[in-house]
TrEMBL record:
InterPro entries: EvaA-like, EvaA-like_sf. Residues 34-232, 247-450 form the dTDP-4-dehydro-6-deoxy-alpha-D-glucopyranose 2,3-dehydratase domain. This is NDP-hexose 2,3-dehydratase family protein. Coiled coil: none annotated. Pfam families: Hexose_dehydrat (PF03559).
Amino acid sequence: MSAPALLVPRTRAGIAERLARSAATVQGVHTVTSQVPDWLVQQRRSVGAVVRRIPFAELDHWSFSPGTGNLGHDSGRFFTIEGLHVTRPEAEWQQPIIVQPEIGILGILAKEFDGVLHFLMQAKMEPGNPNLVQLSPTVQATRSNYTKAHGGMEVQYLEHFLAPRREQVLTDVLQSEHGAWFFQKRNRNMIVEVEEDVPVHDAFCWLTLGQILELLRLDNIVNMDARTVLASAPAVPAETRALSSDADLLAWFTGERTRHDVRARLMPLREIAGWQTGEHAVSRIDERFFRVVAVSVEGAGREVAGWTQPIIEPVERGVVGFAYRLFDGVPHVLAHALVEGGFLDTVELAPTVQCVPSNYAPLPAGDRPRFLDVMLDAPPERVRYSTVHSEEGGRFLNAESRYLIVETDEATTPTQPPPGYHWVTPGQLNWLAAHSRYVNVQARTLLAVLDAALRETTAP
């Protein structure tokens, strides 16, 4: 009798193809796509949550440390608001930042129905969402949440993600979050497939990837956590050629990481320069960028029914966009090796433009973000994708950006881009997103829709 094989193939065949088949299926077995927005509205009404701003003095179990001024929870869990000092050769700044060292789980459960992968999505209330309830992963929980530091209920479906068998895992990667607002934050992005029947609890539904892609064309329907998980999944590359080989792209990006000298250190919140702490907000003296405020949440329909917390609120809606061009019939987007103070590895690949335009209005034209006007002034016929998405609603209040994919030309975005920018194909971006800390969370949102948005303009 022969001994069992010790070795397995280095790649699991068929995962990307099965995901592609699900992406091409726009009619699911269980849910009608057009009914999902109304279903989310009904879920919001049934929850009946009320979110209101409160002064810091009304925070329950949260307080400013007498010594550092850092804002934290009495339990020592969840997160803290601390100060950050970032130093670069050409600039330095100080700011508040969220410190949450624990790794959360963003997990989507998958199951085949009629030979097509469907994904179990949740209608989840987050206090910072403009419309409160959006489509989220099956599980979206920090370690403090799923270990019940709040004393609340169990996280539904969590058992599928804590110790899955390796043959069940379709994707599993640690990804960063917003480097401008989080200090070295990471979440575990997972898709886990099950064969057995699982109960569909209230506020959950099965959708194909094609249905989710349709919903990603609507404003504020699919939340950030669902977008990043889907972007981390393997895709079948539509192209075999590119302006740069994969090896050249990786060498360029490694060079970008080494050429930037960025030093970021935490500091007491009370000592940061250019900011002021008032009764209702920690804000910049010039009122730019963002502020730290406090909210009370009642009737949430979550693991606990109500709570108070600090939350970050940007001053205005942002603009996030990829410039897109065809080179010899192959689609490319212009990625930016962007420095953000909270990144663990100096830079990550970001969209061509990622900013809040009003923050730069007082500055001379030469100091405005490069290519911003290409996005703002794009004629309608060149806009391949335009949708408003909100960022993570558990930590950010009304943090929205208009996400764009804009067709450009040699005059606006040259074949040889300026330093810090590089043309990459959707396949190359997906390849990098399968690894930790290569593609930032904003670029992953656009990666989730990139193939579908560009399909009609791609040459065979």
